[in-house]
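Let us work through a complete example step by step.
Step 1: write down the sequence.
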Amino acid sequence: MEEKENIQQEPQEQAAEQNVKTRKAAKKESKTDQLSKQVAELSDKLAKEKDDYVRLMAEFETFRRRSAEDRINMVGAAAADTIKGLLPVLDDCERALQILQTSSDEAAREGTTLIYTKLMDYLKTRGLAVIEAKGQKFDTDFHEAVTQFPAPTPEQKGFVIDVIQTGYTLNGKVIRYAKVVVGA
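Step 2: predict the structure and record it as tokens.
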């Protein structure tokens, strides 16, 4: 009878061991599932934080670039204002040179020419350029028509006959239009 009891106890013990193993396996699976979920959550959080960081860095880079461009534009605008202020001085030098062409005072002519040349050369290094107008086809992008005059020849119709005030560009941008007389 003892043998029967031993035989009956063995399957029960085996079943109990199997239950324990099954429970342990279920607990391990449960823990594995929980850990997998935590890893997935942490990975998502890390990806979100990384995305936020990349976006913030891109915004900062854009801000830095815009700030640098604004500084350059402010310096350029200040230089343009200074050069615009010197344009009347250039006009006066040109008028003085025209008057001195008929004068017998050679020293005055040379001195005025020297001053005009130095000033103009300096301004050219800063990007100033004269708008060539006389004899050119009238262009509203560079010329301002003060008046129209009957053209001496049919070929001069629509062309600039005379320049009243010289026009200038600064780095390719018109800062003063050339005031001209146009042949009609």
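Step 3: interpret the result. Residues 75 and 81 are 10 Å apart (CA to CA).
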